[in-house]
């Protein structure tokens, strides 16, 4: 609508936060003692898989530098750490913020649109993993306000992705402590997807695609290369460990945590494994991106 008509729809106030909170609770409820035991037994795989996909973003940095972007813009536009966090880091280091935000949003959009279609085309429907769980309104009535409270605290402490992580942390803790085996009611996840998707789409309009078509084209090329590398690495790890190839592939894709976990839930994959890989990669980027950039900058000077 924003690209094809003059009607520039704006984001629903706090809609993305609400969607992330719903999805955070939904993701957290997938965490059970049995699942955590499985994820914990493959911690080394998750660690090195996340590290490998983080390092593969060097391709994007190299490509953008080769075509004239400054160091800060090329670096923070290519890091798979989420739009908000990378814009903040870019602002502290002199990057062109509009291009950083554009590259981050476009990469997530490309991954979300392409990966499910590629899975369907290359792997078929696969074997659905068991996510059975009943709805317990009593537990949800306890978890939901606690999740909002922790999200507000996380936001006040200026931590990344507070509305997703706050709700996820509460839901996962309660689910693990009580071994609940419960789920969100039908339709809740779809509402969360709609709120997040509509919020993401509001970053795009005709001017967005006219402003820097060559920059966006290079961003898409770098994203495609990173996706190919992540897919290849996931295949190798799947052969070595016998873990589900689709879950590993999705976990290693350079998308956002909420979007990739949502896709895992929609495709009936291992949501905790996907989330663990995505969270580990985010931690690598948040803690290593700025020190590595400053080291690179100092060496160049």
UniProtKB/TrEMBL annotation:
PANTHER family, A to Z: REGULATOR ABRB-RELATED (PTHR38457:SF1)
Transmembrane regions listed in the UniProt entry: 43-64, 106-123, 135-154, 163-184, 190-208, 220-243, 269-289
Name of the featured protein: AbrB family transcriptional regulator
Keyword vocabulary terms for this entry: Membrane, Transmembrane, Transmembrane helix
Entry GO CC: membrane
InterPro entries in alphabetical order: AbrB_dup, AbrB_fam
Entry-linked NCBIfam families: Gneg_AbrB_dup
Domain of life assignment: Bacteria
GO BP term, example: regulation of gene expression
